[in-house]
Amino acid sequence: MKKLIVLTIQKKTIIVASLLFVSLVIIFLCFEHQLITDTFGDTFNSSALANKKIFIDPGHGGEDPGCNDPRLGIYEKDINLIVGQLIREILKKTEAEIIMSRENDRDYVLPKDQRGNLTKKLSDLNIRIKMAEDAKADVFVSLHVNTTKKSSYSGAEAFYNPANPYSVLLAQNIQNHLRNIPNMTKRIAKPGDYYILNNTSMPSVIVEMGYLSNSKEKELLMKKSYQENLALAISRGLVDYFENLALEAETPAASQDLATVKPKVAIIIDDLGTSYNGGVEKIFELYKYPLSLAIMPNMDNTEEHALRAERSGFEVLIHMPMEPEKGRSSWLGPGAIEGTMSREAIISNLNKALEQIPNAVGLNNHMGSLITKNREKMLPVMEVLRDHEMFFIDSGTNADSVCREVAKEIGVPFDKRTLFLDSKYDYASIRGEILHLAELSRVNGYAIGIGHVGPQGLNTAKALADTLPLLEEQGIQLVFVSELVMGSVQKSL
Ligand SMILES: [Zn+2]
Known about the structure:
By secondary structure, the chain is α/β, with parallel strands linked by helices. Helix content is 45%, strand content 18%.
């Protein structure tokens, strides 16, 4: 009897359990097509990825280590491969098909008799591109690690082919997630003149996942958890990209918007290096916009502002004091370039500025109406910039400036300010000038504005905070000034 009861209970339990199990399986199957949970506890909507082919290319490999620190046994090729494999792990749970250019430490360099005049590098890249073309991949994602002479540089960045709006969209979607990795230097997607970007028929991106030349980032790039963060950010960017495409297919107007090249506006804020009246703090609050902050050397807060600017996601310029024809000498600041100086003295003052602001990517002049029209004084300036791979922005304080021709002669990327935004200090005037700048960018394709943190700084910051969202709504793309002047940031791949 006792036995029978136990048996009955067991039977009931088994039936109930089976029913529960079956219904759970049904529920699971229903959801499985839309929601896929990845290994990191994240949820991907997979429907936009259905039937998509994603080509993941861990850069370098085999004989070609990429950038490296052999003393510590760190090779770019290994990091690229690890992150590539992690991306595959994450995305394999979606409905997308993942194709890898390599699964191990190898390259695709053809033997000499087969590659003809091609360099080893191009022979290798051609095969990777052909693999993606043959597979009819929807996107090509090439993974890399960067290095540069400036050890303060850090942060992951995605490069696109500016001629392909889908490449731009893909890079922007990936960059948006890379920016959100904790403590990541907040870079923006940039145009790049890379062989892969120029020679793939499908939208492609180069993701530079960080700088080995930065000691902190080098350490991070070797960490499993950081590699997982990178892989997850890139995977999320890919999901966003395909979701955007799906949306675009539903609303044809969106695709037209995507295909038109947007006018570009770059804004430089001058005279950082010292803090007065709170303008600096208010400008630092605008970190979500790609502003370039021009920092004066030899000031109380020069080095602090240079570091803080880069960490917050701004681009850093040196704001070099240069002697004016007239104007108060007290405005000039210490360590200026003056008309009586020898070539050696000019170079020495520039080198001091570079030591204090080592993360600057370019330079513009503070005042300088006397110096910028003087070829003899501008020659050493341009030579120093060329040697540091930096660009020059003429603030435009003298209509007879010779900077453009000297820059061209020496081979320094050059452009000139379009408008000063805050020559009149009141809010309404500054706002008016920002809108004027936007108008000029529509006419000329782009425009460069300069504002200040000085007496008008609070008004300038507020006018920018209120007006920049309007510009974006009007379809104007805000960019770092380097993007306009350099066209793209180059690196030997
Ligand atoms: Zn200035």
